[in-house]
Specification:
A hairpin with a 2-residue loop joins strand 9 and strand 10. By secondary structure, this protein is an alpha/beta fold. Helix 4 crosses helix 7 and helix 10 packs across helix 12. It has a five-stranded parallel beta sheet, with helices on both faces. It has a five-stranded antiparallel beta sheet with strand order 6-7-8-10-9. The chain has a two-stranded antiparallel sheet with strand order 1-2. It has 15 helices and 16 strands. The longest helix has 23 residues. Bound molecules: adenosine monophosphate and zinc ion (ZN). Zinc ion binds next to loops.
């Protein structure tokens, strides 16, 4: 069955035609590891994973690269402001290499918890400085750059067109004036490829330009080329990458090989919070750990993301998370219910579900429609092994780890029961300090304790 993807490059939903039927080559822009990922960032990797799983479900093999930006870069896309990694290093009194290692590990732990399949190749920028150097030298040799004392710039006026993805012309960019004009640049859209390191700059390497470091955009072009060649199938990222980072990647590739590196460019929309932007100053920026501390297992956040298409903004609320929690439980219960039964369900009925599911996922990852098919299977009144197997098959795309789901032990361990009994006794004697002390021990052991008129509920 054909797959359709919305391609930012052509601004159309198109039939997906792989370059090589045997293996899809794909590149995803990864995280900058100077802080914990927030749940908005994580939406981007859930999208990436959803796409991976759908391609695999369709029988394709993948060679998928994701970069880790661990070289320090400036806080704006347009090479201005403070160096993110240095800023974090100062904040935490560590060196930038330690910062990068720590937050990369934290990021990988988060995506593991979300059951995001790791790309075949995870490429750290700091381990590819030589690859970037070779790449930039060729762009220089091809005549697409100019140099100031401390920076090698890409000269966008040398291109037939700059701005192929966002379809903006440079005049619009000037008018928008989001990018302040740097006196050293010849054209407003020009950007840094390689930068001489100031004395106090820690992340720097010996190169053709002295002690220096690469510009941010370069790593994706150079590592994409190294692992996937100069023309591969799919490139993904967040919508914020469209106007600068991905335009610059395309510019670099054109300067290097004359080609646009990928045939399909796919971008995931932003997660909003209570209808607005997430930000530290509004105190509404959450990490996966924050959600866990509020009692949501990571897969609930995964489930929540299936309520909207990746190309639409999605609004995060705790009410929506509660609904996702209920939905995940319903799905698990449905899976267990079908596991218990052996009622007759015809092959045609199964085939019909399969076709509807495949049609939905192959229509530009339409997960809300795919989920409606999942619910039809869950709600099927017959209890059937075939329906259980079907849910497991759909779970190859959903990634909700159904096969490892077992009903949680409802009875409490003996030690905990004894503590609960002691606490009940203390409460009956109005010995509140003793009751509080035992409650703290239970919490310490990973249990929640809720007192109500009907009695005390203790849960893992
Ligand atoms: P960064 O680590 O800042 O480079 O961002 C990592 C990824 O998160 C990028 O693909 C961004 O496009 C994406 N991203 C950042 N904020 C959000 C958000 N609120 N919703 C969805 N994706 C986001
Ligand atoms: Zn990138």
């Amino acid at each position: 069955m054909s797959i359709k993807f919305y391609n930012t490059l052509t601004r159309k939903k198109e039939e997906f035609k792989p370059i090589n039927e045997k293996e899809i080559r794909m590149y995803s822009c990864g995280p900058t590891v100077y802080y914990f990922a927030h749940i908005g960032n994580l939406r981007a990797y859930l999208f990436m994973d959803n796409l991976r799983r759908i391609l695999k479900y369709n029988g394709y093999n993948l060679k998928h690269v994701m970069n880790i930006t661990d070289v320090g870069h400036l806080v704006s896309d347009a090479d201005e402001g403070e160096d993110k990694m240095m800023k974090a290093a100062k904040r935490e009194n560590k060196n930038p290499f330690e910062i990068a290692q720590f937050y990369m590990d934290a990021f990988l732990a988060d995506i593991d918890k979300l059951n995001v399949d790791r790309p075949e190749i995870i490429a750290r920028a700091t381990e590819h400085i030589d690859v970037m150097e070779e790449y930039v030298k060729k762009i220089i040799d091809n005549g697409y750059t100019y140099q100031t004392e401390d920076t090698v710039y890409f000269d966008t006026s040398k291109l037939d067109k700059y701005g192929v993805l966002s379809n903006r012309n440079i005049e619009d960019q000037k008018a928008g004036a989001r990018v302040e004009f740097d006196e050293n640049k010849k054209n407003i859209a020009d950007f840094a490829l390689w930068i001489k390191a100031p004395e106090n700059h820690i992340m720097k390497w010996d190169s053709f330009f002295g002690k220096s470091y690469p510009g941010w955009h370069l790593e994706c072009s150079a590592m994409g080329y190294k692992y996937l060649g100069d023309n591969f199938d799919i490139h993904t990222g967040g919508v914020d990458h469209i106007p600068i980072h991905h335009e610059n990647e395309i510019a670099q590739s054109k300067g290097f090989s004359g080609k646009i590196p990928a045939n399909y460019w796919m971008h995931v929309e932003f997660l909003q919070i209570n209808g607005g932007k997430m930000s530290k100053s509004l105190n509404n920026l959450y990490t996966l750990k924050d959600l866990e501390e509020k009692g949501y297992e990571p897969l609930v956040y995964r489930m929540f993301n299936f309520t909207s298409n990746y190309r639409a903004q999605i609004n995060f609320t705790f009410e929506a998370m509660d609904s996702a929690k209920v939905a995940l439980n319903r799905l698990r219960e449905g899976y267990l219910r079908h596991s218990e039964g052996n009622e007759y369900v015809s092959d045609d009925e199964i085939k019909n579900y399969e076709e509807r599911f495949l049609e939905a996922i192959n229509d530009d990852l339409n997960m809300p429609v795919a989920m409606s098919v999942v619910w039809d299977v869950v709600k099927n009144p017959k209890k059937s092994q075939k329906l259980k197997e079907l849910l497991l098959k759909f779970d190859e795309v959903l990634g909700l780890d159904l096969k490892n789901y077992k009903k949680e032990e409802k009875t409490l361990p003996k030690e905990i029961l004894e503590l609960v009994n002691l606490r009940n006794e203390a409460r009956a004697n109005k010995n509140w300090s003793e009751s509080d002390r035992i409650r703290d021990i239970l919490i310490e052991k990973g249990y929640t304790v809720k007192d109500s008129k009907e009695g005390t509920i203790v849960e893992k």
